[in-house]
Amino acid sequence: MATIAAGIAATAAGLTYIDGKYHIRQDLKMMRAKSKGAKMFQKAVQERRISPYYFFERHAQAHPGEECIWCFEPESIPPTLWLTTKSNFAEEFED
């Protein structure tokens, strides 16, 4: 029984090391996010609601008690659009 427990502990330690070295969880998270984004965009195309405003509207509706901030930077290449709530904005841009 102790041998099995030691084997499980060693396997867990090995997997943790491999994940730390090769960032496997981060890669999986990124792949899931990319897939989710592609599905959201495909849905927007089907609904003919591709304008960034519709994404902003959905974000604002998801946080009805928060003040939402829309920032568009056309001079950046490519143009940048980001959405945030007021509390997140303060956290992201405090000095």
Question: Would you mind describing this structure in some detail?
Answer:
With 95 residues, this protein is an alpha+beta fold. It has a two-stranded antiparallel ribbon. A hairpin with a 6-residue loop joins strand 1 and strand 2. The chain is elongated.
Set out the fold topology.
Layout: H1 2-22, H2 24-46, H3 52-62, E1 68-73, E2 80-85, H4 86-93
Antiparallel strand pairs: 1-2
Order of helices and strands: HHHEEH
CA-CA gap between termini: 54 Å
Which consecutive residue ranges, at least 5 long each, have pLDDT under 50?
A: none
**Major sheet, described briefly?**
2 strands, antiparallel
How does the helix and strand content classify structurally?
alpha+beta
Radius of gyration: 21 Å
Give the helix level as a range of percent. Answer: 55-70%
Shape, principal axes of CA atoms: elongated
Characterize this entry briefly.
With 95 residues, this protein is α+β, with helices and mostly antiparallel strands.
What descriptive keywords fit this protein?
95 residues; elongated; 2 domains; alpha+beta; two-stranded antiparallel ribbon
